[in-house]
Amino acid sequence: MPYRFAVAALLGLASLASAQDSPAPPPAPPAPPPLPPATAGAPGAKAVDDFDHDAHMHASRERHLKSMETSGVHYQRGYWSYGDYKHNIDGVDTPHGCAAACEADEGCLHWNFHVVSHSCSLKGEASGHDDGVPDWISGNAKRYINRPKSSTEL
Predict the structure, then answer these.
(1) pTM as predicted
(2) Cα–Cα distance measured from residue 122 to residue 79, given in angstroms and rounded to the nearest whole number
(3) Which ranges constitute the DSSP H helices of 34-141?
(4) pLDDT band at residue 7 under the 50/70/90 scheme
(5) Helices (H), the chain
(6) pLDDT at position 60, please?
(7) Extended strands (E) in 57-131
(8) Which positions ≥6 away from 30 have C-beta within 8 Å?
């Protein structure tokens, strides 16, 4: 019996020593990342973007039109078509600035100002005005208003 006890003890020590020599088990994998929020259109999802772009455009237009009321500058709702002359005038972010840029440029007869992007375009001789375009304010340079009318314009 002592022999069996000695063998069992040696086997126990051997297994203990080999357990200490073996590498540790790998760490547990990281937790999965959280799921993204439900996107609009998915069943049961809430709209991610509740921003009303149309309402923002209309409010921007009305704010810019209101700012022009006492300017003494010709302005109107809409867009001058054709007669492209210069686009995206640097440093201009108001309809006042757009009108001033047009007045300062001898080749400009009309100006267009986009009420959301605050971009300014200058026009030469334009063939028509579209007052049904709600996101633009436009105007005429004084040189256009005060120029002599041709026989076809009478």
Answers:
(1) 0.61
(2) 11
(3) 53-68, 95-104
(4) very low
(5) 2-21, 53-68, 95-104, 142-145
(6) 81
(7) 76-77, 79-81, 84-86, 110-114, 120-123, 128-130
(8) none
